[in-house]
Write a structure and sequence with these properties.
- The chain is 80% helix and 0% strand.
- Helix 2 packs antiparallel against helix 9, helix 4 crosses helix 8 and helix 7 runs antiparallel to helix 8.
- The protein has one domain.
- By secondary structure, the protein is mostly helical.
- It contains nine helices and no strands.
- The chain is globular and about 50 Å long.
Length: 232
């Protein structure tokens, strides 16, 4: 009996000790990142073997079925929120506020990393897959390759990081933080949908962009959390 109890305790320690060392949030972050990597890998495989034509055609038709002049103007505005110059302007504004006013240098650094790293990774992935853009009318100008969507990927990483930083700061000040949790994913989703609506991306490009951007976002958040733990 004593030996069985001892074995159970040893087994429990072996199972739980990695989780304790990593921390609950870190463990869940790694698991979520692994899931997103699997999703991206599956989409990438299907793109290479050209197995997404039916899905992309159906998804694109559903989204563009709501087309109107007014909605097109809204979608152009939304897609501009994922453009490089808007994101850079936000980086300077928000990063400057975090650094100068709040003295949060590490928040600023990880915000820079989320944006610049997302851009670089997206360019690398586009070069690897070299998927052409949809052969339909483009309602906005778009150059380069299609997979994964740069707007979706970088927006997921950058706006996701902004949302996380806003949430953390509001939460620690005892202020309502739920708007950041609600509005951030809605904005990222809207930017991705706008790319399909405007005819410059396939739906699978956007999904892959969300997955890859989500992985990069998780990595940035984990990095920021680990730094905060060390400096506290």
């Amino acid at each position: 009996m004593w030996i069985d109890v001892k074995r159970q305790r040893i087994g429990s320690l072996l199972f739980r000790s990695p989780v304790r060392r990593l921390g609950g949030h870190l463990t869940w972050g790694i698991l979520a990142g692994a899931l997103l990597l699997l999703i991206f890998a599956k989409l990438a495989e299907d793109v290479l073997y050209q197995e997404l034509e039916t899905f992309d055609a159906a998804a694109g038709a559903v989204i563009r079925n709501f087309a109107s002049d007014g909605l097109t103007r809204v979608m152009i505005f939304i897609t501009e929120l994922g453009s490089a110059y808007v994101e850079f302007a936000l980086l300077v504004t928000i990063g400057g506020f975090l650094w100068v006013r709040l003295k949060h240098a590490w928040d600023t650094l990880l915000l820079v990393v989320s944006l610049l790293g997302g851009w670089v990774l997206n360019m690398v992935l586009k070069t690897i897959f070299q998927r052409s853009r949809p052969d339909i009318e483009h309602l906005v100008e778009a150059g380069g390759y299609s997979f994964p969507s740069g707007h979706a990927m970088v927006s997921a990483a950058f706006y996701g990081m902004i949302g996380y930083i806003v949430w953390v700061n509001l939460y620690h000040r005892g202020l309502p933080a739920w708007p950041a949790v609600l509005l951030t994913p809605l904005l990222i989703l809207a930017i991705g949908v706008s790319r399909v609506y405007l005819g410059v991306h396939f739906a699978s490009d956007v999904l892959a962009g969300f997955a890859a951007g989500g992985v990069w976002l998780i990595a940035c958040i984990i990095g920021l959390r680990q730094v905060r733990k060390r400096i506290q």
